[in-house]
Write a structure and sequence with these properties.
about 280 residues, about 30% helix, alpha/beta, 9 helices, Alpha-Beta Plaits, Rossmann fold
Length: about 280
């Protein structure tokens, strides 16, 4: 899939990054990279409509930036982009997420090898690390689990290593789907099924645990579908949003009979845990 990259320089550096990213997310941008001097926002090729172009020039965005440019990022370029700056990610002695060209470490409890391609979920982003932390802290043995918006399937693979079964990893992006298949095979995570799809693919399926590391807008739209797919006493873990969005997501969860249990934050990015309300 081709993407458009919206490269912009915030008016006051990192002070307005959260607001700017939130507004771009509301316009449909799916992922972001925060650099010291600029922000890179990405949207699928067919998402850049005339109305979106106008909105990017409107006051809600222009008041937050000093300069911007749009660049077409061809599908075949993503692999080189990720590999050029890929470093292993270590979470204490519990978990190491590395590429095949990094050295192994027998001292860690869980070691996951991820091919660094376009798929989101190399553990470098705060939201992925927050979700990995939740997975590491949660008892998963014998639990059925869904990794929604799975990207590389790193969360599904770790869950499988911790004894979750069966495990389903779903993503609506062809790159992510193919990369997840490769990573599941490479990590010998036989309990993980990989599927190309979205929340509509959940009909008729049920899980003890759902992980959804996506973005605020998709979470708000899909929480009802997640609730329908959760077993009694099930847990929902979500991330991909800023701390300022947590109250909105808590309210949506409450509307769908999900009780807020906890949240964790890293550099303003947030993850939260909910449980099915029992009657």
């Amino acid at each position: 899939m081709d993407y458009f990259e919206f490269k912009c320089i915030p008016t006051h550096g990192s002070q307005v990054n959260g607001v700017l990213i939130a507004r771009l997310g509301e316009l449909g941008f799916e992922s972001f990279v925060e650099n010291e001097e600029d922000i890179l926002a990405y949207i699928p090729f067919n998402g850049l409509t005339d109305s979106l172009r106008m909105a990017l020039k409107g006051p809600e965005i222009s008041e937050l930036i000093t300069a911007s440019e749009l660049n077409l990022i061809k599908d075949q370029n993503w692999n080189a982009v990720w590999e050029s700056a890929y470093e292993p990610v270590r979470m204490g002695n519990q978990c190491l997420v590395r590429a095949p060209f990094h050295s192994s470490d027998s001292q860690v409890e869980y070691e996951i090898v991820i091919e660094p391609k376009m798929s989101f979920g190399t553990a470098h982003h705060e939201t992925t690390r927050l979700m990995l932390k939740y997975v590491l802290e949660t008892e998963l043995h014998g639990k059925s689990l869904l990794d929604m918006g799975s990207g590389t399937a790193v969360l599904a693979i770790l869950a499988s290593m911790k004894g979750a079964a069966p495990v389903l990893a779903i993503d609506n992006d062809e790159w992510a789907y193919r990369n997840a298949l490769e990573n599941v095979e490479g990590n010998k995570a036989g309990a993980v099924e990989v599927m190309l799809g979205d929340a509509s693919s959940l009909k008729g399926r049920s899980f003890d645990i759902i992980l959804a590391n996506i973005n605020r807008n998709i979470l708000l739209n899909d929480i009802p579908a997640y609730r329908l797919a959760l077993n009694s006493g099930g847990f929902l873990f979500i991330s991909g949003f800023y701390d300022t969005d947590l109250d909105m997501l808590k309210e949506k969860a409450k509307e769908n009979k999900l009780q807020f249990l906890s949240s964790q934050t890293d550099n303003k990015w947030t993850a939260a845990c909910f449980k099915v309300v029992e009657f």
